[in-house]
Each structure stands twice: as C-alpha cells, then as structure tokens.
C-alpha cells in the first residue's frame, strides 16, 4: 500500500540514492513516484509546495509533511524498516559512515555543477576555471576513496557505499570521458561488483 510520494527525476544521482535505499530496505511499494523536470532556472509548482527551495528528491509523507534533501530522506527511510540499518545508529561507526556518505554527496554536487555549467549555461558565459575546480574536487575525492576507504566500502552496502556507487554512476552517465577507472582500479573493481546488485540494476539511469 503506497503511503508516500517521491518527487523525482531518474537521472539525478541524489534521487537514485533514495531509490536504492527504497529497494534495499524493501519499501518500494510504499512510494508513488511523481516525475518532475527541474533545473536551476525551471521549477515545478507542485514540487514547491511545502518545499520552497524546490529540491529533489522530496518525499511527501502520508500526513502531508514534506522531507527534502536525500540525506534527510534516506535517514527517515532507514528508520522505517526492520532490517539491518543502512546508517549506524550510534558510536564512532555512525560518524565515519556519515562522513564517507557526505564525501560521496560532494562528488555528486561537483559533477552536477559541472553538468549545469557545461550544458545549461550559454556557451559564452561558461566559466572554465569553475569546471576545472569541480573536476579537481572529484579527482581528489576518488583518490582518497581508493587509498583509504576501499575496505570500508567493501565491508557492507550501507549509506556510504550506496552514495559512492551512485556518484560513480553519475560520472559515467554525464562525464564518460572522465577516465576514473584508470586512476582508481580498486574502486573500479568494487563498483563493477556492486552494480550487479538488484537495487543498482533497477535504478540504472537511461538516457
């Protein structure tokens, strides 16, 4: 029985993160998907109700409350199922995994910003220095994941691993020339494995 509405765009990595959580926690049948097409200069009136900044994903609960920001939505959903938590409930593990998840979000932010700058902004107004800086953020973050966090990512498919997987998927979608696999072969091997999970296969973006 559906009790919630998820405002989504299937190409958003942040939306995909929420969708993977829904699959992994067995809650997909509780949600109706409401497609929206938004950009920094194009909003959606229905989305903006009780979500004044117009962020996606946004989740409308049964009582009409609207949650926005993928981090908030994922934590809410993680408290609604009876399986193993995707976010550690307490202790140092909680903060380690949330920090790693934040790093994945930062990769997504930089990649989405690059997409806006190189695709939506008029060509004569594009800021190449901005694009370069976003790329450097992504490369530093991926190098750090390769050098310091592979074992953590491989230990469990939790909120941190989900975020990293969705970030890598978005890079492949929007910047296939980025060439991250050559620089991070361990991360590439891990990613090839997790993309076989049903939740990742079901949410793979298609243009």
Summarize the structure in words.
The chain contains 10 helices and 4 strands, in the order E-H-E-H-E-E-H-H-H-H-H-H-H-H. It is α+β, with helices and mostly antiparallel strands and 207 residues long. Helices cover 57% and strands 8% of the residues. A hairpin with a 5-residue loop joins strand 3 (58-60) and strand 4 (66-68). Helix 1 packs across helix 7. The protein is globular and about 45 Å long. A 4-stranded mixed β-sheet has the order 2-1-3-4, with helices on one face. The two termini are 30 Å apart.
Keywords:
4-stranded mixed sheet, 10 helices, Glutathione S-transferase
Write the layout of secondary structure elements.
Elements: E1 4-8, H1 13-24, E2 31-35, H2 45-48, E3 58-60, E4 66-68, H3 70-78, H4 91-120, H5 128-148, H6 150-155, H7 159-174, H8 180-183, H9 185-194, H10 198-202
Parallel strand pairs: 1-2
Antiparallel strand pairs: 1-3, 3-4
Strand proportion, as a percent range, falls in 5-15%
Distance between the termini: 30 Å
Low-confidence stretches: none
Strand adjacency order, main sheet? 2-1-3-4
Reading the helices and strands in chain order gives EHEHEEHHHHHHHH
Radius of gyration: 17 Å
Q: Round the mean pLDDT to the nearest integer and report it.
A: 93
- How many distinct beta strands? 4
Pfam families: GST_C_2 (PF13410), GST_N_3 (PF13417)
Protein name: Glutathione S-transferase
Domain GST N-terminal: 2-85
Organism: Pseudomonas guariconensis
